[in-house]
Structure of Fe2OG dioxygenase domain-containing protein:
Amino acid sequence: MASRVAVSDSFKHFEFDTTLKLLSSSSSLNSVPSKFHFTNERSAFPSDSLPIIDFSALVARDNPPQRSKAVHDLATACRDWGFFILVNHSVPESLMEAMFKAVKEFFSLADSEKKQYEAKSASDPIKCGNFNVANTSNQSFTLWRDYLKLYVHPTFHCPHKPQLLRDMVQEYTQITRKLALELIEAVCEALELNQRYVDEILKMESSFQMFATNYYPRCPQPDQAIGLPPHTDPGLFTFLIHNGVAGLQIEHDGKWFNADSPQNSILVNAADQLEIFTNGKCKSVKHRAVVNEEKDRISIVVANGPSGEAVIGPAAALVEKDGRAKYYAMKYEEYVESQLTKSRVDGKSILEQQMIFSTY
Ligand SMILES: O=C(O)CCC(=O)C(=O)O
Ligand SMILES: [Fe+2]
């Protein structure tokens, strides 16, 4: 990492200065301004062997052998990679296209219009602008991306303009919520956890679902800035689609892999609450978003969590089988807030802080 701005009392995670979209469209921008400086090694291996999960087989309840194979494949993917490509998921291609049109309309609004959604605190249900992160030496830098983040369930929050965004986010998050529920039920089935865990422990009926979209403008020096530094996601399963421009990388066996995906598929990763709830049987995979010199990249992300009120620790039946709990429990809404405000780029993640290490 190169020089950055030292963290002072005025350090703010949330910032709305000038959007990056506006800054990077200036023809004279030929180097990364110092506040974005983050030296990164963005090379990664190709991702030929990423698991592919066929959603239609997973929900084929009239074909038990097919379903049980899909359930098994899902559990294996969550254990070995913490990441997979979901195909035959039933989300219409036209809805995905409309989502990209809608978020582009949002990012193209004037800064003065977007500024009303500048976050004042971590718990604001609508946030947009830039995001600053710090490292353990108390130096901060700004990420090379503009973002919009919304809390969409159990209460729906979305800007009123553009109307297309409001309509599409509502439709897309409703469909993806159903997909997430199916995935969670399948993981529970694979681990022999009954429906009570889904309904009463995770409280999926009031699942806390977040929608985010990231706009990563092309970058004059992609090795000197980062879209999103390595992190894991809160929640159970994160769904990601992108505009066809590569940039997502995932960590596997201590190496970075490019997470390429076929068109119309959804990239899914197991997230922190799934790792905790399954007592480590599913892995919350570290990932990052790198930027490039040629093309603007947009990703659309849905983080599907348990209820914000749910206190998530390892499932009792698994603790019994494993002989010990490997994680502390925490209320999910507190976990989300801690991750937004307390994480340090090169420090222990909130997930690592929740781990209980065996004393023998
Ligand atoms: O844009 C991407 O590829 C990654 C986004 C992501 O990891 C996130 O929003 O948590
Ligand atoms: Fe993420």
